Every structure is written in structure tokens, then in C-alpha cells.
UniProtKB/TrEMBL annotation:
Protein known as: Thioredoxin
Residues of the Thioredoxin domain: 1-116
Similarity remark: Belongs to the thioredoxin family.
Gene: trxA
Keyword Electron transport belongs to the record: yes
SUPFAM superfamilies: Thioredoxin-like (SSF52833)
Organism: Algoriphagus limi
Amino acid sequence: MPTVKLTTQKFKDEVFDYTTEREWKFKGDKPAIIDFYADWCGPCKMVAPILEELANENPDIVIYKVDTEVEQELAAVFQIRSIPSILFIPMDKQPMMQAGALPKHILEEVIQKELLSSAS
């Protein structure tokens, strides 16, 4: 499955509605990764094809992409200060944010240890 472009409204509908909920409550039915990026960002362009590969290799997770230039409200909610920033969302634990371009083997490790090991 290819990566999915995520708007602020789609985030509220499918991931978490921060306007109505105080405590984190993930709405998705699969673990997810959200890539906060911008088109002008060099490291973001390096990570993008890796995330596409991972999206195709891991049908049990959803990989979203958020253009921080377009979705400024969402970037502000997550206090995105540097891009790329990647949010890992396990099914039953708190999400984890990682700033910076991560190599594929590190992303695979996080997917296996944090996202898929707890999924049942």
C-alpha cells in the first residue's frame, strides 16, 4: 500500500481528534507512521522513497505523509521544529516522535520492535 497524504481533517477523522480528546486515543485499526515533511527539504526527499518501500513491504502498518507547509495547524499541534520528523504510532502505547532522516534499517527496526511486536 502506498503512503497516504494526510490533511488536518483526515488526521482528526482517522488518527486522533485533538480538538475533542484530551488523552491520546488512536482511532486507527493498524499501527501507523506519520512523516512530517516539506517539499523543499533535502533530507525529506531522501527519506520519502524509503517510506514508500516500507509502506509496500509492511501491509500491516499505514504510513502517512504530512506536508508541514500545507498542514501548518497539524505541524503546530505536534510542535514540529525540524523536518523530517517521524511519528511512530503503536496500537496500544503512546506515540513516539523521532526528528531527522533515519536510514531504512533503523526504520525497519522501529517498525518491528515498536509497531508490529505489540500488534495482534
